[in-house]
Amino acid sequence: MSSAWKVDRQSFEEIYEGSIEPGKEPKKLFRQALEGTIVALSYAEILLNKAIKDYGEDLKIGYGGETAYFIPAIRALSGDEITTLGECVPILNKMRDLVKSDLTLENALQWGESTIHAAEIIEAVRYATGGHESLPLPWTGFISDTYVRKWGIKHVDWTIPGEVVIVGRFRTSEDAIRIVNKLVQKGFMLFLVDEVIEQLMEQGYKFDIDAWPVYPLGNFTQIIHAVNYALRASSIFPGIPAGDSFNHRNYQRDRILVFVMALGERDIVKAAASFAAIYLGFPIIVDQPLDEDEIWPDWYFSVDDYDEMMQEGIEVRGIKITAIEIDVPIVHGPAFEGEAIRRAEMYVEFGGGRSTACELVNMVDSDDITDGKIEIIGPDIADMEEGKAYPMGILIKVYGRKFQSDFEPVLERRIHYFMNYGEGVWHMGQRDQNWMRISKGAQAAGFTLNDLGKIMYGYFKKEYAAIVDRLEIQLITDQAAVEKLLDEAHAKYQSRDDRLETLRDEAVDEFYTCTLCQSFAPTHICFVSPERTGLCGAVSWLDAKATYEIDPVGVCQPIDITEKNIIDKEKGEWSSINTEAAARTQGKTTEVCLYTMMDRPMTTCGCCECILAMLPECNGFMVTTREHKGMTPIGMTFSTLAGMVGGGNQTPGFIGLGRLYIVSRKFLPADGGLGRMVWMPKELKDQLADQLNERGKEEGFGDNFADMIADETVGEDPDSIMAFLEEKGHPALKMDPLM
Amino acid sequence: MPRFLDTSLQNSKPAVERKNRKKNAKDFKNRTNDPAALEMLKFTTENNIITAFDRWSAQQPQCAFGYQGICCRICFAGPCRVKGLEGPGSMGICGAKDYTIVARNAIRMMAGGASAHSDHGREIVEVLYHMSEGKAPDYEIRDADKLHRVAKKIGLELEGKTDLELAKEVALEAFADFGRHTNDHATFLKTALCEKRIKKFEETDVFPRAIDREVVEVMHRTHVGVDADPVNIIFGGIKCSLADLTGEQLSTDISDILFGTPKPVLSEANLGVIDPEKVNIILHGHNPVLSQMVVDTAKDMEEEAKAAGAAGIQLSGICCTGNEVLMRNGVPIATSYMAQELAIATGAIDVMCVDVQCIMPGLRNVCECFGTKLATTMSISKIPGSYHFSFEDTKAKKSAEAIIRLAIDTFKERKEAGRPTQVPQVKSKLMAGFSLEALMDLFAAINPDNPIKVLTDAIDAGEISGVCALAGCNNLEAEYEVSHTTIIKEMAKNNVFMVGTGCVMQAAGKQGLLNYDAVEEYAGPGLKAFIDRLYDANKDKLPDKLPLAFHMGSCVDNSRIFNLWTAMANEYGVDVPKVPFVATAPEGMSEKAVAIGTWVIANGIPCHVGAMPPLEGSNLVWSVVTCIAHDVFGGNFILETDPQVAAQKLLAAIEYRADKLRIHRKVAEEYGTELCQAF
User: Fold this and answer.
1) Are strands A392-399 and A357-363 parallel, antiparallel or unpaired?
2) Least CA distance to B236: which residue of chain A?
3) How many whole angstroms separate alpha carbon A666 and alpha carbon A658?
4) Closest Cβ–Cβ partner in B232, B660, B676 for A139
5) According to DSSP H, which parts of A338-448 are helical?
6) B318 in Cβ contact with B335 (< 8 Å)
7) B27 Cβ contact list (under 8 Å, min separation 6)
8) Chain B residues in contact with A202 (beta carbon < 8 A)
9) Backbone angles phi, psi at B492, to 5 degrees
10) Is the confidence at residue B266, as pLDDT, over 80?
11) Is the pLDDT of residue B22 over 80?
12) Residue B631 in contact with partner chain A when CB distance is under 8 A
């Protein structure tokens, strides 16, 4: 069963049908929007033509290289790939021309489209001419493609159930922080414009868009950066072509579940901006009283109470909240996963070399477990001294009729995420290398280890209900008891490592599909093998297997890769995989080779961690990461590359991949494997150094293969890299020519 | 975008709807809180002497189309008026919609204002130029330091030049700001702005080139069938209003060079300053080139007056020429614009000498009743039945003598005829003379290295909450001077440091708000402490304790206020919209006020106007000037006829800016970043 996003309407205007009773058009609202559109277009025209006068029509525009999608909202809706100031003129003129002054719904939607163009031109001009007010962190202004992609994966599985744009100012900053925290806890992505940002700052809210996408965009026309973000999502994930405004709007309406909270005094430009949102299928809720002819039911209406406003927004968009309620004194949810606790904020810590610690998931018999039991062995947080390190053993006992011992490490890795979900709880590492901190704030709120157990229990039961029937947690802070657990754990880790060592592509009969992204990127498909994770880096073969057990008709389906289905063993082509690809990409991709990127490679979606590309001049491959903003030897940044190869396309010579696939033994063996790797960002090289060296040794490249790989400190062009590779005697230079 | 910390005030609509604004036409003689004016109004109504108050009453109800700005008389196919929101009647004959008509009318007012201020400036530049060529022997350079500072500021080389040579170069630069034919920026404006405002004005295409050119451009733009785009029209108006600011800046700079930069001075205000036993001359209008000459010459003619039986010569002022001679010479203030006829009705005025602007034609009728001679002096400003002394800067002193002699003769006539006088015994002590230099001198006694920091530190420490500029006219739409005094007292109570110019400061002076007694009575504890602190540091130099509000001069001297907020912005390292500074014209009336208000908001300062300008007829224009202007420029109009509500909004706007600056500073520290420049 495909979970792919599909369009189910003939005309976009169907979504507004029936919302206005004939004769009851909100004329006053329409008039405000018309006048606001006139103001927006006129202002855009003044700024644009002045900029042309001062800087010339050839001045480059495009948000300083932060996007591969030109001026993204205009590109998506109009199809124009603008690169200079001069090219904005005909588009703006067209948008002015389309504004008709009769106060009708049809015209009002056009004003919305025109306003999007006006605002995007205003912002693009200001970025290009430095007229843009300098917005230091934490304000974002335009948001780079990196973040659109980074957070894509959270949309995929509905961890992010929707997006809320908040414009203006709450009545009090206490209201602001309360509502924003509630929305974040429900998992919403937030775009903030105007003084709600200062209100949150006043309340000490920590903006960290690497931890969770709460974007403080800026003021006024900077609201367009929420729109160009959304329209990049529809360009990136489902790969909707530039100018296909019908499908861009459908995707916005159906898949990017946005509603807008417009707070404080309304003015005509805000009214025009509201129609820009409505044009994309996003309703507006205001906190101001409205006259009868200013209300458009379900699309533009007033709710005075902020909690009710939030609830109405969720209901009017039909957003399903996946967040769960757990009775603990701290907030929790995926939004808090990225939070760090610095030493100064820490109350106590566990492990991390400072004390004995380990974590273990153990499959047990039904008799040895009491579902929901949480046991604390040793002192609890309240009995601990501030600033000290204490031992910590985490034992999670699991029983399930469908549970297999192979799933133990899958669940064990989730400890990291679920613990981090608690605000004021921080976890890193795994097994006996784990390290945890509890913040002073959590301690002050009365947080106990039992609460920590409740959070983990809650999330395990929510996400693994299909395979976990019973779950019991022991949190051990008694030194002797932790040491005892550690002995048990070591034995278990060893047996798992032995099992993983045997877990090779050749050793299994089934690979898995992963089409989790298809709710978002409908034509992309990953094939997950024991030695190749999904390109998002988040789905291993064991994960896929567990996912299949959880939902046998879901996104991870087993594929028979036994002998009978092999077409080309070297390139990794199986008939069974081809059949599955065709069936699950709406026929877009019919043949896939797993072990090469030169011939019908795997498709690339929008969320890949890395992109690999061939570098013919060096007879090898280069790879760059989403985090690496710099240039690469093939003359394209990650953003540009992703814009070119993403969106569920097969592009020979380029693939998206997860970071760890680089050090897999099945890293593109048909193309020469790891020995082809000639360049990568230093950060990635540092992360993988040990594994690169180990794999290099296996391949016979000496002890320090990592040092043979060039990075940006060596150079960003093939010539300087070549000299380096020759000096190091890089194996790629001795391989057969790539082309 | 929100503009007030308290969101309950966040409503650009005035507290009282147009149709409910109280205008009790019958009770016009109580339409003020000035005791002297009340006494005179009783007298004039009893004696059937018609003044502005009677005429205001007779004009009620005023035309609603004109009041809302939707009457168009730009061509004579009209007049047209906007009769509704839809259909052919919603437009002029040419098809101009409400927003085009309202915007055009408004910017024509700006052009009028810019013309007035700047032509005033041109007269002064001409004097400087003629003086530098030796053709205006009655004038001299009284502040050579200022000449040097101004020359340096506008980029002139000082080395090896005599003061006269330098004066000539300054004059030529100023002339160039009137009639430049290139697209270069106006010098006197560009050299006074902070960098971020220059960038803002360039990016939005509102930087003026030359004053005359921008005025002409507005007249062209608004001619029948030219600009119909309301935003384009308003931006054209902003450019013209910035030309107005250019004219004001050069007027102030050159007036100070010629007549001296004001220093703190004591004086008095209200009709009680008129002494029936003296030769009374009122100086009314705006330009100091003649009034200063009369002040200087009067000293020499004191004996001549005494010989005629007078106790001496009593000069007093009305409107901004009165402010000019108050600031530099301590000449007392008789009254302000709306009561100018009431001054004549005291019967004790021998000559009212007028130059330009805000001179009511109605004066002459009142003069007829009391034998007062009305003397006009400028070729563009004459009144039937008045004496006209054609002023030439080449023989300025001669004109001044003739006017004073006319006054002495009239005094004799008055005494001989035994004409009665009725002078209300109402006057208040005041201190004025606070040029920017004088203010900085006060601050320098506390912080000699960085005087402006005394003011910004006091705001940061919460001693004072911010600064409010008081400016503008009189307008009987409000009760005469009630809005002024209400707002000043509210600001004082809430620790707002006040500076001001124009008729509002004459109201303040008359009503006893420009002296230390007012500090004791009305200032909040922080403001009082700040004013006391300033005084304590400057005791030796000052003639008395400091006042509640600081009088900075005439309406062209709003440039001094502009220089003050620019200095604060530079000290904070921010653009103007982040400075806790607001402005109010509680009784705005003239076209000059429209121009000033517009450049105030373009500079990024919220500006309250307490009498409703003709903008209510277009929702678009209203929304742009009261809301969207803030998003673009950082300032916006607060159009509010209720002075209590207005005061709350002004305070909330100051609070909002101070708060935002505080939060942005906190965040810059937390994140280790530069201060956010967004507003």
Assistant:
1) parallel
2) A46
3) 13
4) B676
5) 407-420, 440-444
6) yes
7) none
8) 659, 663
9) -60, -45
10) yes
11) no
12) yes
Say which amino acid occupies B532: D
**Cβ–Cβ under 8 Å, residues A435 and A429:** yes
A607 has pLDDT over 80: no
Half-sphere exposure of B178 (CA within 13 A, CB side): 20
**Nearest C-alpha neighbor of A203 from the set A167, A172, A169, A177:** A177
- Across the interface, whether the CB atoms of B2 and A46 are under 8 A apart is answered no
pLDDT score of B372 more than 90: yes
**B187: three-class secondary structure by DSSP:** helix
Closest CA to B373 of B413, B321, B315: B413
Quick one: which of B639, B472, B652 has its CA closest to B17?
B639
Largest CA distance in chain B: 81
Query: Which residue, among B183, B631, B639, B675, would best test binding to A if mutated, counting the most A CBs under 10 Å from its CB?
Result: B631
Of A11, A19, A30, whose CA–CA distance to A283 is shortest? Answer: A19
pTM of the predicted structure, to 2 decimals: 0.89
CB contact under 8 A, A219 and B2: no
Please check whether the domain covering B271-417 is classified as CATH 3.40.50.2030: yes
> Cβ A269–B230 below 8 Å, yes or no?
no
pLDDT at B107: 98
What is the tens place of the pLDDT at every residue in A350-378?
998 899 999 999 999 999 999 999 999 99
User: Can you point out the beta strands (E) in A82-127?
Assistant: none
Instruction: Tell me the C-alpha distance between B419 and A436, whole Å.
Output: 99
- Summarised one tens digit per residue, pLDDT across range B213-233 is 999 999 999 999 999 999 999
Fold of B98-259: Substrate Binding Domain Of Dnak; Chain:A; Domain 2 (1.20.1270)
Question: Which class is A9-316 in CATH?
Answer: alpha beta
Question: Phi and psi of B430, rounded to 5°?
Answer: -150, 160
CATH architecture for residues A334-494: 2-Layer Sandwich (3.30)
- Give the per-residue pLDDT at A1: 31
Lowest mean per-residue pLDDT among B335-339, B527-531, B612-616, B672-676 = B672-676
Question: Do the domains B432-671 and B271-417 match in fold?
Answer: yes
**Over 90: is that where the pLDDT of A3 sits?**
no
At B645, the amino acid letter reads V
Beta bridge partners of B316: B282
Amino acid code (one letter) for A93:
N
Q: Which residue has the tokens 């509704």?
A: B84
Which helix (H) or strand (E) element contains residue A306? helix A306-316
pLDDT of residue A238: 84
Pair type for strands A558-560 and A510-514: antiparallel
Distances (CA, A) of A702 to A20, A685, A722, B256: 74, 17, 19, 84
Distance CA B257, CA A615 (A): 72
**Domain regions of chain B by residue span:** 98-259, 271-417, 432-671
CATH 3.40.1470.10 fits A506-734, yes or no: yes
Who's near B159: CB < 8 A, 6+ residues apart? Answer: none
Q: B432-671: what fold? A: Rossmann fold (3.40.50)
Least confident of A218-222, A496-500, A542-546, B108-112: A496-500
SS3 A511: strand
In sequence order, the 6+-apart residues with CB closer than 8 A to the CB of B112 are B591, B592, B594, B595
Q: What length does chain A have? A: 739
- Name A390's bridge partners: A350
**Closest CA of chain B from A62, distance in Å:** 18
Domain ranges of chain A: 9-316, 334-494, 506-734
The residue among B86, B90, B203, B670 with the most chain A CBs within 10 A of its CB, best to mutate, is B203
Residues for chain B: how many in total? 679
Amino acid identity for residue A54 in this structure: D
Give A626's DSSP letter.
Answer: T
